[in-house]
Amino acid sequence: QVELVESGGGLVQAGGSLRLSCAVSGLRFSNYAMGWFRQCSGREKEFAAAISWTGASTYYADSVKGRFTISRDNAKNTMYLQMNSLTPEDTAVYYCAARLGFDQLTTLNWYYWGQGTQVTVSS
Predict the structure, then answer these.
(1) 107 partner at 20 to 30 Å CA-CA among 28, 44, 46, 114?
(2) What kind and span of H or E run contains 93?
(3) Which tens digit of pLDDT belongs to each residue from 51-69?
(4) Burial state string for 35-51 with b = 16 or more CB within 10 A and e = fewer than 16
(5) Model confidence over 71-114: pLDDT tens digits?
């Protein structure tokens, strides 16, 4: 059974930082591209960042580029999202996802999803 479990969310003040983790089990982690999505209240889920199987390639939404850094540790079957310079507009539920190809990254066409972790940024 494939399982993606996010952690690290919480409440932070504007300008602060958080590091999210996504622990993966039940699949060969190093074969999958990984991504982070987020969903603000009342809005559709949107792409934030993605990383290729080895970590050599990354891709970011314009809204987070330069502030967020995606990474992965294939030995630990875990992906991370370092979020800096947070603003209230970053408040959302953050989801991790997995897919085999490093394409269609910004769509919701990912194979596996986690349950999400809440990030709240206060002004």
Answers:
(1) 28
(2) strand 92-99
(3) 999 999 999 999 999 999 9
(4) bbbbeeeeeebebbbbb
(5) 999 999 999 999 999 999 999 999 999 999 888 888 888 999 99
